[in-house]
Amino acid sequence: MSRQRSPLFVLFLTVFIDLVGFGIIIPILPLYAEHFHATPIAIGWLTGIYSGMQIIFTPILGKLSDRFGRRPVLMVSIAGTAVGFALMGLANALPLLFVARILAGITGGNISIPQAYIADVTAPEQRSRAMGLIGAAFGLGFTFGPLIGGVMSRISYSAPFFFAAGLAVANAVLVYLILPESLSHEHRVKPHEDAPVAEVFRHGRGWMFAIVVATYFFLIAGFAIMTTLFALFTEKRFGYDARANGYLFGFIGILTVVVQGGLIGRLVKIFGEVTLARVGLLLTAASLALLPVSSNLTILLVACAGLSFGSGFASPPLSGLASQMIDRSWQGRALGVMQSAGSAGRLLGPLLGGWLLMLDLKKPIAEYGHTPFFVGALLCFIAAVLAFCLKKPADDRSLQNVPAL
Fold first, then answer.
1. Of 94, 114, 283, 350, which has the maximum CB count within 10 A?
2. Which residues of 18-31 are buried (b: 16+ CB within 10 A; e: fewer)?
3. % the chain with pLDDT above 90
4. DSSP secondary structure string, 235-292?
5. Is 405 among the domain residues?
6. Cβ partners under 8 Å of residue 243, min gap 6
7. Are 358 and 85 in contact (CB under 8 A)?
8. Is 201 exposed, middle or buried (0-12, 13-18, 19+ CB in 10 A)?
9. 404: in domain
10. Is residue 294 part of a domain?
11. What are 180-211's pLDDT values in tens digits?
12. CA nearest 401: which of 331, 316, 339?
């Protein structure tokens, strides 16, 4: 790989390692919490509080990166994540586990920083492809993380948390040694220029940026309903155990990597960000509607493939469009606001999905999951409707002095 592209490669590794660490604890956390006699409600809050913290702190971390640079804020946030994971492994009571999850949520809301870094160093026509690399790292992390967590849990329930902490430490060292700073001093926010994060909507094309944020929120909320209830759905409808569901999630993750890591750049050149996002959102909505009526494995795999392709087509172009609509000195805050909206969707989706699933418990097993998945499809359809209000910027104010890759 050329020296010019090394920053994107390091960002890919950074996000991949970060998501592997996050994915490791997904299959372990509920069982670990039960070890401390946590109730189902407490486990729900333990899961949701992570996204709740990200709603607040993701834009704050983006704002700090606009002021102090991407590299130092990214290193500090990854180090905080390492401490959070270590505290989870050391927890001897449920309150300490909550403290650890809160800390991990505060520092783990750093995905906006790699996205802002990409906006710093890429031209507009390359951003959706570069954002796709971040999506591919997400897919790989969620594919390998749970598998590693399952293996490490055979040692002890705390072992996966210590392993994730070690990964985060290695990640921070990687950023320190290899990743150069992307935001020059002249483009950083000065202390006297500091302003509330909400001011981001008044810069660049703020009204269009608001539509992108709303679109992203509805997409993530609908998709989060699926990820929360998928294992329960396949267990009730098809009798699949944890291993079979792991294979299905791996199938979704691999397709996501293929789409976002390989196809997205070519598709954006052919169709453009706006058209591709619209198609992706409609495909996601249709696949979510197909999922609860799946009667056999073939239809289930078709629905899973549609979800992978749909979300893969939609997410990177939305991030790319968001970065083009806001002035360069506001990139960290803008993408932080967008990721905060995504965290809100990841918090609302599971809560809404769990409540809606209660409506199906007294219905025949063939209708199990209909209500939450159809509502999830409706949320993604709303996102598609909003996407038809989007227009690609004619020019890009954030492009000034952007180095070519």
1. 114
2. bbbbbbbbbbbbbe
3. 18
4. HHHH---HHHHHHHHHHHHHHHHHIIIIIHHHHHHHH-HHHHHHHHHHHHHHHHHHGG
5. no
6. none
7. no
8. middle
9. no
10. yes
11. 887 777 666 655 455 555 566 665 566 788 89
12. 331
DSSP H stretches of helix in 109-205: 112-121, 124-152, 159-178
CA–CA separation, 133 vs 14, rounded Å? Answer: 11
What span, in angstroms and rounded, lies between the C-alpha atoms of 265 and 334? 23
Under 8 Å between Cβ of 135 and 312: yes
Residue 159 has pLDDT above 80, yes or no: yes
pTM for the structure as a whole: 0.71
Furthest-apart CA atoms within the chain: distance in Å: 63
With CA atoms as reference, report the closest residue to 305 among 261, 251, 359: 251
Count of structural domains within the chain: 1
Cα separation of 20 and 16, whole Å?
A: 6
Report the 3 state secondary structure along 7-58: HHHHHHHHHHHHHHHHHHCCCCHHHHHHHCCCCHHHHHHHHHHHHHHHHHHH
Domain extent, residue 23, equals 7-180+196-394
CA 176/CA 154 separation, integer angstroms: 33
Read off the pLDDT of residues 211-259 as tens digits, 9 standing for 90 and up: 998 999 999 999 988 877 787 788 888 888 766 776 787 788 788 778 8
CB contact set of 40 (below 8 Å; sequence gap of 6+)? none
Average pLDDT over residues 376-405: 72
Distance CA 209, CA 203 (A): 9
Q: Hey, is 396 helix, strand or coil?
A: coil
Decide if 62 is inside a domain: yes
Structure tokens at 21: 């660490």
Q: Which of 113, 124, 128 minimizes the C-alpha distance to 171?
A: 113
Cα separation, 267 vs 271, whole angstroms: 6
- Alpha-carbon gap, residue 362 to 327, rounded angstroms: 52
- Indicate if the alpha-carbon torsion angle 80, 54, 311, 334 is positive or negative: negative
